[in-house]
Amino acid sequence: MRLFNFGLNWQAFSSQRLDAPRLDAATRSLGSLLQRDTLQGASFLDVGCGSGLFSIAAQRLGAARVVGLDVNPVCIAVSEQNCAHLIPEATIMFQLASVLDTASLDRLGRFDIVYAWGSLHHTGAMWDALRNVTQRVVPGGTLALSIYNKHLTSPIWRVIKRLYNQLPSFLQQPMAVFFAGVIYVAKFLVTRRNPLEKERGMDFWYDVVDWIGGYPYEFASPAEVTAFVTRQGFQLRHFVAAQVPTGCNEFVFERVA
User: Fold this and answer.
1) 67 pLDDT band (50/70/90 cuts)?
2) CB-CB neighbours of 231 under 10 Å
3) How much is the pTM?
């Protein structure tokens, strides 16, 4: 079974779309999710850093120690390039490692803020990954997550994603174009907003490619995520429901035990 190469998609996004206004949008969205105007002096771990955009945003908000973690070497290279381009004075460390490798995580230590937006459900072992990231949070620290919502159509999307990754490359783009139209109409009907007007500094086309191709793919209900993380010694502080049925629910937990 071929897996989706997230690194190549982030590389294309970075070269074609990433600029200072998108970094501004990412910085605003990070502060909004965490409900904080500043991360001054905090340590920040970005799990599944992708393009490095939110690692960079965290340092712009004042985080003192920032580590971007990704299992894909292309993501690490792209993140370093984006960091050098957007804030050359940054002191961010980008680390090639798997969130499923507990020994590598242990070597990083613990952090005031652990941020795993849209990454753990692509590991192939989401609950193990989620348990591992909870162990990286200091007492009183923050865990920010986004996980795909469980919906009756979720198993269908899993089949679609598997199919996409089995197709030759010359058939993948027509499939993505087709679903871009479907997703555009569906999101507009649900949200009554233009899907091209992306938040978080993202881009509609590259998000579609990520969505259609993003495999492994897992999902969970808000209750399942909250119950699991609560058992690890956390309390839910902030929740943002997915805008569309199979979108990402966002959670902000505080470590209380």
Assistant:
1) very high
2) 10
3) 0.95
Instruction: Please name each of the domains of the chain with its CATH number.
Output: 6-150+218-255 (3.40.50.150), 154-213 (no CATH)
Taking residue 254's Cβ as centre, other Cβ atoms within 10 Å add up to 16
> pLDDT tens digit string along 158-203?
999 999 999 998 999 999 999 899 889 988 888 888 877 878 989 9
- Give the residue from 192, 215, 211, 204 showing the smallest Cα distance to 1: 215
Q: Is 153 exposed, middle or buried (0-12, 13-18, 19+ CB in 10 A)?
A: exposed
pLDDT digits (tens, 9 = 90+) for 215-227: 999 999 999 999 9
Task: Please tell me the distance from the alpha carbon of residue 215 to that of residue 209, in angstroms, as a whole number.
Answer: 11
3-state secondary structure of 13: helix
Gap between the Cα atoms of 29 and 120, Å rounded: 19
Alpha helices in 17-110 (DSSP H): 20-34, 53-60, 73-86, 102-108
Q: How far apart are CA 178 and CA 196, in angstroms?
A: 16
Task: List % helix, strand, coil for the chain (3-state, nearest 5).
Answer: 50, 20, 30
Placement of tokens 């956390």 in the chain = 234
